[in-house]
Specification:
Layout (H helix, E strand, L loop, with lengths): L1 H5 L4 E7 L11 E6 L12 E2 L5 E10 L2 H18 L4 E9 L6 E9 L4 E8 L5 H21 L5 H13 L1 E6 L9 H14 L9 E4 L7 H23 L1
Helix pairs in contact: 2-3, 4-5
Length: 241
């Protein structure tokens, strides 16, 4: 979504090995391949607005055996179709964790305008029928609450977009739904960007970015801006005197 909506170069990822913290610690590994922006280029402003209707649900299930995966899959389908009867259901990952205490569910809602909002749950206790019921209920309920908020991103993506808004050139808007909802992480990220870059986020989450050029000496630019501001203040004091 970041590639299409924000305009960053392609990023590919590959899971080398999954990691788990429950029971015997098992360290995972993932590989990312990044394409850097060309020198002296800038990110353009972007708008995350007009979310559109949900058209697809991507459901990923990791469980220790096919019976648990099939049971959880059935329960998730029932709950999602009850709320979204016309949605297309996709299952990109159905994987054996080879451990009865390792269970994971991720549901991502995709809209007709290309936005994705998700909810997940990592269960690290021995699985049973009631637990599968609880997991299906919890994740589908939380996802529905997120969708009802009406934003173009979920609460976990909000703060990830702040840095791109701050560095882009122009006015970037990220619609977070009812009451312009912002998480504490998002508010903190915005505050840090404001302090470092001298810009402002309004109450709606809109920001006029600094237009950072790849490779530029931004500290030198900020010093020049401060010198200009101080000169203007000195001139104003002289005019008052």
């Amino acid at each position: 979504m970041l590639v299409e909506k924000v305009g960053i170069p392609p990023i590919t990822s590959q899971i080398i090995k999954r990691g788990w913290s429950f029971g015997r610690a098992d360290v995972g590994a993932v590989q990312f391949d990044l394409t850097p922006l060309p020198s002296m280029s800038k990110l353009s402003e972007f708008n995350f607005t007009e979310r559109g209707e949900v058209t697809r649900m991507h459901v990923s299930i990791l469980a220790s055996d096919s019976a648990a995966r099939n049971t959880l899959k059935k329960k998730v389908i029932e709950r999602l179709l009850a709320r979204h009867p016309d949605v297309e259901m996709l299952f990109p990952i159905e994987e054996d964790t080879k451990n009865g205490a390792r269970l994971y569910l991720l549901i991502v809602a995709e809209t007709c305008n290309g936005y994705r909002l998700g909810r997940d749950c990592l269960w690290e206790r021995k699985s049973n029928a009631s637990m599968l019921e609880t997991m299906a209920n919890t994740v589908t309920k939380q996802l529905e609450e997120e969708l009802q908020r009406g934003g173009c991103v979920d609460e976990y993506m909000q703060d990830q977009l702040v840095v791109f808004q701050a560095l882009a050139e122009g006015r970037s808007v990220v619609c977070s739904g009812k009451d312009m909802y912002a998480t504490l992480h998002t508010k903190t990220a915005r505050w840090v960007a404001e302090q470092l870059l001298g810009l402002t986020f309004d109450k709606s989450g809109t920001c006029h970015g600094c237009g950072f050029e790849v490779g530029e000496d931004f500290l030198a630019r900020r010093k020049t801006e401060r010198d200009v501001e101080e000169s203007a203040e000195d001139l104003e004091r002289l005019e008052i005197a």
